[in-house]
């Protein structure tokens, strides 16, 4: 092969290498730290860039995306001297590539270690029960502690999340017993409240039933009273009408004789009924003197009638007040 051809090939290779070394394409959400002869020169953002070959070089390259770092589980002691194993997750983001490159050797490791230290400090201030209840407060305190120290590292701590808090087995057993007792307590309270409400409902129902019964009884008694009053009024009206009719009849011609005959008939019928119902009779001394009984009854009528009007003439000897002789 001719020396000239070899020289051309070498020059072409050198040019290709120079071109490759002088061109740098930085992806989106990425920054590159360029050093010239070992000294910081510039920070390259996303895009196409030219470098001086063999003089400039990309020393560091950082992703500006949010990163999630898993911290190792660690043992923490609470304020009531209970050991718990806490596992967490930290989210960070590079905001200053130059500070991240020259401010600390490994910002990921440093942030993880600082998160563990801050976590132990926060948990040590709380009792075991509060540790489970105040996860958000612990997370905020860890973020605040890391963020204050990482300001010179060029990174931003976005958040910290506790993944798991594992107490000892003995504490687990005690917590489970407490949980069962608490649930039983709530169940007993709920049951007692239900029984209380049921008792109240039954009492109110019984009260309403008694009220309705008393109102119904009152209505029934009022209806009966109204019925009896109407019956008494009807009977009284009928009796009054009958008495008026009898009175009008007695004032007519022959009325007194008809009344005497009717009284005698009723007198005989009364003794006939007594004889039919019993074999033993107690009779008045004048039981056989029907005329005397009729005269007595008619004399009562005559007295009542005499109160209304005076007699027009005196009665004859041996005659009653109604103009006939009772024999």
From TrEMBL:
It is a single-pass membrane protein. Residues 305-319 have a biased composition (Basic and acidic residues). Its main location: membrane. InterPro entries: Band7/mec-2_domain, Band_7, Band_7/SPFH_dom_sf, STML2-like_C, Stomatin_HflK_fam. The chain crosses the membrane at residues 6-26. It is found in: Membrane. Gene3D superfamilies: Band 7 domain. Keywords: Membrane, Transmembrane, Transmembrane helix. Residues 304-327 are annotated as: Disordered. Residues 21-179 form the Band domain. One of its GO terms (cellular component) is plasma membrane. It holds the Pfam family Band_7_C. It comes from the Bacteria. Belongs to the band 7/mec-2 family. This is Band 7 protein.
């Amino acid at each position: 092969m001719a020396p000239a051809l070899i020289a051309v090939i070498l020059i072409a290779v050198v040019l290709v290498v120079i071109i490759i070394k002088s061109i740098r394409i930085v992806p989106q959400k990425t920054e590159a730290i360029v050093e010239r002869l070992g000294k910081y020169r510039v920070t390259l953002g996303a895009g196409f860039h030219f470098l001086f070959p063999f003089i400039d070089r990309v020393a560091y390259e950082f992703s500006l995306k949010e990163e999630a770092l898993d911290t190792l589980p660690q043992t923490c002691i609470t304020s009531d001297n209970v050991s718990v194993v806490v596992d967490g997750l930290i989210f960070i983001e590079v905001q200053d590539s130059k500070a991240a490159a020259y401010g600390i050797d490994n910002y990921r490791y440093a942030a993880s270690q600082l998160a563990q230290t801050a976590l132990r400090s926060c948990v040590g201030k709380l009792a075991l029960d509060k540790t489970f209840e105040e996860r958000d407060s612990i997370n905020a305190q860890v973020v605040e502690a890391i963020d204050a120290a990482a300001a010179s590292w060029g990174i931003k701590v976005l958040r910290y999340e506790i993944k798991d808090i594992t107490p000892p087995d003995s504490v687990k057993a005690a917590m489970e017993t407490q949980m069962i007792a608490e649930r039983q307590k709530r169940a007993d309270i709920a049951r007692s409240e239900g029984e209380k409400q049921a008792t109240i409902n039954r009492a109110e129902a019984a009260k309403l039933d008694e009220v309705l019964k008393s109102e119904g009884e009152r209505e029934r008694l009022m209806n009966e009273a109204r019925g009896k009053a109407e019956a008494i009024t009807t009977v009284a009206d009928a009796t009054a009408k009958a008495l008026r009719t009898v009175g009008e009849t007695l004032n007519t011609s022959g009325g007194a004789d008809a009344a005497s005959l009717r009284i005698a008939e009723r007198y005989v019928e009364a003794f006939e009924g007594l004889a039919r119902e019993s074999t033993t009779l107690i009779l008045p001394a004048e039981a056989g003197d029907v005329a005397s009984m009729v005269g007595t009854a008619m004399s009562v009528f005559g007295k009542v009638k005499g109160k209304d009007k005076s007699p027009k003439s005196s009665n004859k000897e041996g005659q009653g007040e109604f103009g006939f002789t009772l024999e």
